[in-house]
Write the C-alpha cells for this entry.
Amino acid sequence: MTPNEAKPLGTDPDWWRQAVVYQIYPRSFADNNGDGLGDLNGITSRVSYLVELGVDAVWLSPFYPSELADGGYDVANYRDVDPRLGTLEDFDRLVAALHGRGIRIIVDIVPNHTSDQHEWFQAALAAGPGSPERDRYIFRDGAGPDGNQPPADWVSDFGGPAWEQVPDGQWYMHHFATEQPDLNWANDEVRADFIATLRFWSDRGVDGFRIDVAHMLTKDLTQPLPTQAELDALPIDGHHPIFDRDDVHDIYASWRKVLNSYDPPRTAVAEAWVDSSRIPRYAHPDSLGQAFNFDLLEADFDAAQFRDIIRQNLDLAAQSGSSSTWVLSNHDVVRHATRYGLPHSQRDDQGKLVDRPGWQWLRTGGSDPAVDLDRGLRRARAATMLILALPGSTYLYQGEELGLPEVVEIRADERQDPHFFRTGGKDIGRDGCRVPLPWIAAAPGFGFGGATPHLPQPAWFGNYAVDVQDSDESSTLNLYRQILHVRHSLVSGENLDWIETERYDVLAFARSAQWHVVTNFGDEPYRLPGSSAMRVVASSAPVIDGILPGESTAWLVPM
Ligand code: NOJ
C-alpha cells in the first residue's frame, strides 16, 4: 500500500488487543501555522508519515484549552480544542484523515483535576465556602487558630505543598501543580460531566481514551486528615485515603456502560501507577478494559529484568482477560535511547529504584554519569524489537522511531515543566523528551514549522531528522517502518513460548511456529540456533552467518 491510499478501518472490535499505538504530544509534533506550537492541522499534514510508519492508532496527549501549567494536563475545557492548536472542525478533519487511512484515534481524559482556569474552579472561587460550586473540588478550612495552616502537610507529586489557600482563607487540594485543583468525585455533577465528555468525543468518532492518573479519583478525606508520614505508611490495599481505592471502579463501571453503548465499543486504557497485583482491576472488561504496564520504564536493559516483567505482565493480563501493554518511552520519562546509554539504575535492598531512571544524569546537565549514546541506541532498537514481538499492544512515543535521545541542554528560563519550578530546579523535569520533532535537517526549526519552536531544539537534532533517515536504509526510522510492517503479517494469536538459550543474557521465545524472537542482552555475540530451518526476517543490527551481535534482537521465520 502507498501512504496515500485509502484504507478502511476494519471492523474487529478487538482491534486494540495487539495494536501499535503511537503517542503524539500535539504541541511538539508538527506546527502547521508557524506559531511555535504544534497543532492539529500539523498532525493532519503528517498522516502519510504515520501510515508509512505502520501504526494502528494514535493517542493524542491533551489538546484542550489550557494555560499550559502542566503541558496541557491542566484542562480548562474538556470539550473543546485549544485555539492555539486549532478548532473542533480541525479535529473532525484529523479524525476523518486518520480513519480514511485505517488509523484509529485515542484521546486523553484528565479526570483527577481541572485547570484553575476551568469555569467550575472560577465559579468555586467566586461562590465562597460551603457553596455547591466549591463542592465540585476539595476545599477545606485551614488548620491552626486562624486557619492559616494547610489542612494537612501533604506534598504535591511535583514537589511543594499539595494545599493552596484562596483569598477567603479556605484551602484546596492539588495533588499536582497549584493550577490543577483536584475534583471531588463524591459530587454527582462531576460524575455526570465526565460521562458527557466521554460521549462528546465518542460521538465525534474517537475510538478510545487514555485515562490520566486513573488510580486517584476517589478519596476518603474524613477529618482529621492524616499527615503525609501517616499517608505514606498506610497500606495501599483498596482503602487508602487517596490512592488506588476500590471504589474508583464504580466510576469506571459506569463509564464502561457508556463506552460499550458505541459500535464498536470505545476502548480505555488506565494510567494507573499501582502495585502490579492491582492492575487487573483496571484492565478488567467491566472497568476500563486495559491498563498501562510501566514496568519497562523503570527496568534496565537486562535479560532477567525483562524476562520477569514479561512473565508477570502476561500473567496479569490473563487474570483480567485483557491484553498487556508495552511501553519504553512516553512524555513523562527520560527517552529510552538515553536511559540505555547510562549505567544501570541504583536500587535499594528491596530492589526499589532510588531515583527516576536518568534523572540524576539530567540534574548534572548530562555530565554524570557519562552517557554512551551509541550503546543507548543499539539497546533501544533491540528492546523495541523485543516488545513489538510480545503479545499485547505496544505504545510508541513520538520521536523514538527516530532514535531520539533526551535533550538536556535547555536553559532554566526556557523550561516549562512544573517539576522544575516546584523543586526550585532540583528536579529538571520532563521537557527534554518533549522537544519538537526534527523533520527536515536543513530547514528552520528542523521543519517542525515556524522558526522558533516552543522548546529549543539542539543543533544535533538535525542528525536525527526524518529526511536524513528517510534516505538511509539502516536508519532507526526505516527499522521501525520495516518491523511494523513485518509485524502485521506475523501477529496472530496471543501465545508466547519461551525457548531455552543456555545463556542467561539471551532471551528467546516463539510466538508461533512462524515467528521466533531472540534478544541478546549481553556483549558477546550469540549463534542463532536452527539456522537451516529459520531465516532472519528483521534484526536490530546486522546478522552475519547466523551470528546475532551483542545488544541486538532478531526475528526469525521459517525458511
Ligand atoms: C500523568 C501525565 O502523564 C503527566 O504528564 C501529568 O503531569 C500528570 N498525570 C498530571 O496530570
About this structure: The chain has three domains: 15-111+188-483, 119-173, 495-558.
